[in-house]
Design brief:
The protein is mainly α. It has a single domain (2-204), classed as Rhopdopsin 7-helix transmembrane proteins. The protein is built from seven helices and no strands.
């Protein structure tokens, strides 16, 4: 069952990437940073899966994914902001997080090859803040990437909590651990479906004049 959820999630992510790429090259005003994020996520997810099947440590790829996700989505949401102060908040947060992670790696480089809760928490919470800022702006402006943003906030809030619980309770029984994995995989699929729906209503569903 877990394999089905994982591979179904990959399939939806690849479909999202393809559809957004098609819309981008058809000049449908797809945000380039978001397309980069989707392509990056696809490459990283498939790379982590390959490393897993090769019985190699893929935790450094996971940490790299969270950092890259923050950067790509940071630039994405930054490009959607009309306020200079909001752009500054996003870009400053990205720089500060990069410095914090860089200092941690300098002090103990092995942390980058382990389950790094610091990287997960600060990058995910930062992206949530970026998304909430955009959600707030949409109250009085055009709802661009509305469903993407809703899905992202819901997924990252729940997923970050799962990572924290899993890290604190290292002695969890196997059944509960598998339940967390199932739930996280399910949430990821829901998020990818939100992206797919946003693509449909924003680009594919538009009538040509």
């Amino acid at each position: 069952m877990i394999d089905f959820l994982i591979y179904f999630g990959y399939s939806v992510l690849i479909l999202d990437s393809v559809l957004f790429a098609i819309s981008f090259f058809k000049k449908e005003k797809v945000n380039g940073f978001f397309l980069i994020y989707l392509l990056f996520a696809t490459i990283m997810q498939l790379s982590m899966e390959a490393f897993y099947h090769l019985h190699k440590n893929n935790l450094f790829l996971m940490n790299l994914f969270f950092i890259g996700q923050m950067m790509a989505l940071g630039f994405f949401y930054g490009s959607l902001m009309n306020s200079r102060s909001q752009k500054t908040i996003i870009h400053t947060t990205m720089v500060l997080n990069a410095i914090i992670i860089g200092v941690q790696s300098l002090l103990d480089y092995e942390q980058f090859f382990k389950y790094n809760l610091l990287v997960i928490v600060i990058t995910n919470l930062s992206v949530i803040v970026f998304a909430v800022l955009h959600l707030y702006n949409m109250l009085t402006s055009e709802k661009k990437y509305y469903y993407v943003t809703i899905g992202l906030i819901l997924y990252l809030l729940a997923s970050t909590l799962i990572y924290i619980v899993g890290n604190i309770n290292v002695k969890l029984d196997n059944d509960f651990k598998f339940l967390l994995v199932y739930f996280n995989s399910f949430l990821l699929i829901v998020y990818y479906l939100f992206i797919l729906y946003d693509c449909k209503v924003s680009f594919l569903g538009k009538k040509k004049r």
